[in-house]
Amino acid sequence: MNPVFTRKRYQFGSFRKVERRRGPAVWEFRYRDSGSLGRPQRQLTLSTSKFPTEAQARRHVEALLWKLNSDTPYNVNDEMTFGTLADLFIEEEHLRDISKLKAGESNEFGTLKVSTAKSYLQLIETHIRPRWGDAKLREVKAAPVTSWLKEMKHEPLTKVHIRAVMSRMFKKAMLWELMNLQVNPMSLVEIRRASKRSRKPIVLTVEQCQQLVSSLAQPYKTMVLVGICTGLRVSEILALRWEDIDFDSQQLRVRRAVVRGIVDTVKTECSEDELPLDPTFSDSLETWKRNCPASADSWVFPSPLTKRPYEPGAIQQKIIREAGRKLGFGNLGWHSLRHTYRSLLDAAGAPVGVQQRLMRHAEISTTMNHYGNAQMDSKRQAHGKVVKMVLKDAVGFCGVASPAELSKSAGQQ
Predict the structure, then answer these.
(1) pLDDT (tens digit, 9 = 90+) per residue, 219-252?
(2) What is the dihedral of CA 71, 73, 75, 76, to 10 degrees?
(3) Which of 166, 206, 282, 307 makes the best surface tag, with the fewest CB within 10 Å?
(4) 3-state SS class at 186
């Protein structure tokens, strides 16, 4: 008796246009889903207003058909459009789910950061899909993409980002075996890089740091002090909780970031780290803790109105930048504090390997990598030098008397 070989047939589904008593007609798409519970027959209704032609409606369900037929021998590579790949990519990376998150919510999808997901989705829907959505995967090659990018009237950096998103989409296509490629086509696309920034970042001196901090009211005084004395990014500063600060062991743990009010992961794997706290700086934080408004999540810097982290843009424009202009320092921003911290580490004579760990950079030049990983004692020594430079002879930093002030007070007694 000959063995019987069965092979699952590739299904295309069926479309029909159904008139309704009220409103425009709709498309009914019927298909079988053997993996679902209950009856395998399924039906999807699509609006004819949104998809006027059957061809448009079929393109919309291509991603669904690919999933339904992923284990069949039918080769869909030649027929799949780049728009379908975009749909699969958006669903796989949860771009729409992440983009819909609101302030106060957490990014629990574990894929991309909020800012990255929103950027990807915007680039796909604004630039990539309108041009390549209807093109077959095999038609999206390096040469036509290069020509398209050259003709675009956008900044080179925007073109670099578009190429990066398309490259990531192709990587997924290769992973899913949608394309028989050995090389990602986007690796062959060359873009003239944007010119180097003509304006150098503002870096403050020790004296300027002291003037800036002294000119600010709370909680901005402590926020800026944290930026200068730790080099944390603003998203990390505003995401601090009191549980992240261990006053007994004098350490601060960078665990999360807050972007547009949404709790997210830090920028890179290297960004999540433990940093030392100099005792003088630690005293400043403890003083602020005693005056910090209470919040349900024990934020170090909760807004008194929302009890959630502040919006960094408003603070930069109305507080930090305004203070910088009054003091004659120029247009200061949050990242000026990070640049300043790096400059002060240099002034403190910290080895470049130690600087890498304190700045928590994911990448560093070969020269810096030769210094190896710094241990906590080395990081603490370099960090302490920066804090002492900033707080030396300073009066009234975060409510903590300076050494000079204490000596003067003792002499009067």
Answers:
(1) 999 999 999 999 999 999 999 999 999 999 999 9
(2) -40
(3) 307
(4) helix
